[in-house]
Write a structure and sequence with these properties.
By secondary structure, the chain is mainly α. Helices cover about 95% and strands about 0% of the residues. The chain starts with a helix and ends with a helix.
Length: about 50
């Protein structure tokens, strides 16, 4: 449980920093890319 909350915190921190430096566009791009990786990981796990 501790690792999950730590991961969520680091994700939130990453989004916050990218939002401050690059604005909304970069933040949305990073969210989309991470979600795409998660989805593909789930799909590949299901097939494997």
């Amino acid at each position: 449980m501790k690792a999950v909350s730590k991961g969520a915190y680091s994700l939130f921190f990453h989004f916050f920093m990218s939002f401050k430096s690059g604005g909304i566009g970069k933040t949305i791009l990073s969210i989309v890319s991470i979600n795409t990786k998660l989805v593909w990981g789930i799909i590949l796990d299901g097939k494997g």
